[in-house]
Specification:
Number of helices: 6
Order of helices and strands: HHHHEEHH
Radius of gyration: 17 Å
Helix content: 55-70%
Strand content: 5-15%
Low-confidence stretches: none
Distance between the termini: 29 Å
Structural class: mainly alpha
Largest sheet: 2 strands, antiparallel
Shape: globular
Length: 141
């Protein structure tokens, strides 16, 4: 049975959380998707990342990230400027509108997390994090 496969349970939990999170962002009338928010948040945290590095951090393929970046540029949430010493590269910057969007999404994200983690202790979360990290390491080594 699928319900007995741990990876099915993990995937089901993640997909259900993402649906909840997107529905709440939509309900707040913020015009951004969860994936776009992730990309914008990663760029806000480090504006010197390449698209490859951004894709790795948000766990998406480069083509998807390139499309999201193009859309975020079009929406005015990001700007792109040439890197002086490397004509092939551009540096992405979060615009004031992008910063305002991140600020608007933050309380929704915090609320989503509180709902999803309701009834789970800090100790249980620490155990879950350790177990998931172990699975990750098992699969990457």
């Amino acid at each position: 049975m699928l319900s007995q496969i741990i990876f099915y349970s993990i995937d089901r939990a993640i997909r259900t959380y993402r649906k909840l999170a997107q529905a709440n962002i939509d309900r707040a009338r913020i015009a951004i998707t969860i994936d776009q928010w992730l990309v914008l948040q990663v760029i806000e945290e480090d504006q010197n990342l390449t698209q490859t590095e951004i894709a790795e951090r948000v766990l998406k393929d480069q083509a998807s990230v390139a499309r999201m970046i193009a859309l975020l540029l079009k929406q005015g949430l990001l700007t792109s400027e040439a890197v002086a010493h490397d004509a092939r590269r551009t540096r992405l910057r979060v615009t004031p509108l992008g910063t305002a969007t991140l600020a608007a999404v933050e309380p929704v994200v915090l609320s989503n997390r509180a709902v999803a983690l309701q009834g789970i202790s800090d100790e249980e979360l620490a155990t879950l994090r350790r177990l998931l990290d172990r699975i990750y390491l098992n699969c990457t080594s």
